[in-house]
Give the backbone structure.
Amino acid sequence: MSQTLAEKLLGSHALVDGRPTAAEAGRSVRAGAILEVSVDRVLANDVTAPVAIREFAKLGVDSVFDREAVVLVADHFTPNKDIASAEQCATVRRFAAEQGLPHFYDVGRNGIEHVLLPELGLVSPGSVVVGADSHACTYGALGAFATGVGSTDVAVAMATGAAWMRVPESLRVEFEGRPARWVGGKDLVLFLIGRIGVDGARYQAIEFAGPAIDALPMSARFTMANMAIEAGAKVGLFAVDDVTAAYLAATGSCAKPAALRPDPNATYVERWTIDASALEPQIALPHSPGNVLPVRAAGHIPIDQVVIGSCTNGRLDDLRTAAEILRGRRVDAHVRCIVLPGSQRVMLEATREGLVEVFLEAGAAIGPPTCGPCLGGHMGVLASGERAVSTTNRNFRGRMGDPRSEVYLAGPAVAAASAVAGCIVSPEEVAA
Amino acid sequence: MIGTGRVWKLGDHVDTDAILPAKHLTTADPKVLATHCLEDTLPHFAAAVAVGDLLVAGENFGCGSSREHAPIALQAAGVSCVVAASFARIFYRNAINIGLAVLVCPAAARRAETGHTLEVDLASGTVANRTLGERYASEPYPPFLVELIAAGGLVPFTRQRLASSGFGGRRAAPNSPGRTEP
Ligand code: SF4
């Protein structure tokens, strides 16, 4: 029987009364089934873990099912922005100490969770990951069935090593051709969300494939899988290939990549083919990630702030792209440009490569790895009427601050070019 | 459970930032969260909502973040049930997990307006609009969710199962060094 990647991944983790089922039973799993599955990693952050810890205490168990499997990251309001957020981090820190959890990542050793986990080799292809964060779907780039859930799900998964899942239908999206200069993973995924809409893949798995995808580096695949949730998807999956294997080897992950590919005759609810070579850099206008236009069609809208970072575009490749544009140029006098590397390691490598110098000389501010402004937390909150171009993933009303502020979503090239121009521009208008 | 309540009507794609803005995520206290729910979308909602009131929304209700603070805030504010044309998946599972009733019923969602009186029968999945004198059938829950809802949510459901034998096979022995990667 032919299976999609999602059916294979969940089928191979199916449980009956807490015990694995036979491999053949897993091979017969189809979309629509509700299964209990074993989970290989359980993740929560400083916002969602406190609620999960409260629910965990109600379950009547005193330890997590497997200390190695639980990952807690303080990244949303860190370094602590106020007393309330400090208390939340303290709750998480205490729980990690009580439970003896080796994978608790605090300020100075952390990063934004979805940049950090792959970088630390904590996500293996073929695994199932649940995270109390909607962008846990980022790890689909490594061929893991990774999905966002709530705190109660995480509490139960920490206690039992299991979660309930409805096996999603799959949407197959193939990108052909070679993207033009300045067109990256963010532009491909924004274009897709613009086409299918913010609920275009609701409750489905998106399988990304095609020659343009095969040629993409891991950083761009993470960006695309990350934004699958912005189309309503449960997960955004990539088959494992040589690029994945090379990435795993470089991160020192001990996992041997399982050769996971969808079967040739798998059933899809829909198929899309997109010519990547025809795409220009894209931008999502307020207040929806589905409100997408080519940047040139948006017009030269004046802006107040640029944010480069986040779990979507806070990786080294993203900073390299931004630095290519900012090198030898100045951020416009009316724009605050904030660069937040996605992790401690990204920050270190960006420093070693001289990128930090480029940003500072251009008049950008550099901050520690944090979600910060992405969710209107701190370090770049917008005032009423202000406009930002941001490499983050959501531009809902009030997402970065006052409900009367506006967020435009784009990739690092468009963000950096707009910082220089003082208004929304396509990168080629600033850099050749 | 049969509940009758007054309707608050919302549109399509109401996101979790609209239900509970991120700036309030520095607390997990349901009572505090309740005072902020929908504050930028329906500024008078938190003060005026009565226990038992229902939210009725269009497509993709609860899209965006995984914050359980959103359904917790609605539940703590007194909302008895959310009826929508469709839900974003994380919100939907969070609501069921914490015991907040959610029903997929496009017809009821289309017809209801703020101020209407709605009666919801969770067991049969029927929604009746008392103001209009109309009845609609909602999409039935799969059997697993019926069990979960009947238990009162995922925590009581799991407690029961952990207490009974035959579950918990994935728990490592106490003080073991932990499982290694498969
Ligand atoms: S960077 Fe933004 S989207 Fe990503 S995990 Fe942090 S708050 Fe969520």
